[in-house]
Specification:
With 198 residues, this protein is mainly α. It has one domain. It is 74% helix and 0% strand. α5 packs antiparallel against α6. The protein is globular and about 65 Å long. The N and C termini lie far apart (65 Å).
């Protein structure tokens, strides 16, 4: 057993840093990501959060009930798998929308940092435009898909498939609008910083 005096000072420093990192990460995870946003933005995010959480709770409840029933009563709900599959697009699309709104999409800035500083805003704006165009195209294709197949009725749940697939339309269109709003915000802030000069 080692004494506190025998322990190297570097270990104490590393332990202190690790504790601070852990505390900061915990604080960030528990803090409200929308605290600094205007009221309208907070309301939009809360509504989308409620939809996503509702889809997740429904999925977990159905899976748990089905598994419990299968193992305890030797009975399986025929509609359970379809219900979970129909909820998944809503869960995924609400996550995409909120990650765009909160700037938590995964991205790699390594190559962006190598671009000369004066060109970085132009490249960033071009990236926003590409994202908006791709997501708007996906929303259009998804809308076409819902128009064609949304009326088909699910075998066991007996709901139109459009209840599920319409999430693709709302999710991609919402993400496109979120990127467009972010593009405008960045451009507006840059205009204010440079006094209107580019």
């Amino acid at each position: 057993m080692t004494n506190e005096e025998d322990r190297p000072k570097g270990d104490e420093d590393a332990g202190g840093i690790a504790a601070k990192i852990d505390e900061t990460a915990r604080r960030m995870e528990l803090s409200d990501p929308d605290a600094d946003l205007p009221v309208a933005d907070r309301i939009i995010n809360r509504i989308v959060e409620i939809i996503g959480v509702s889809a997740l709770v429904a999925m977990v409840a159905v899976i748990f009930a089905n598994a419990t029933s299968r193992y305890l009563l030797n009975y399986s709900f025929s509609w359970a798998e379809e219900m979970v599959q129909m909820s998944m697009p809503w869960l995924a699309m609400t996550g995409v929308f909120l990650s765009v709104r909160r700037g938590t999409m995964i991205r790699i800035d390594f190559f962006f940092q190598k671009i000369p500083a004066r060109l970085q805003p132009t490249v960033a704006y071009a990236g926003y435009v590409v994202n908006v165009c791709v997501l708007a195209f996906m929303a259009y294709v998804s809308l076409d898909f819902v128009r064609l197949f949304g009326g088909d009725v699910a075998l066991y749940v007996q709901l139109p498939m459009g209840v599920s697939t319409s999430a693709l339309v709302f999710g991609t269109a919402g993400a496109a609008m979120a990127y467009l709003a972010e593009f405008y915000r960045e451009w507006h802030q840059r205009q204010n910083r440079t006094g209107g000069l580019t």
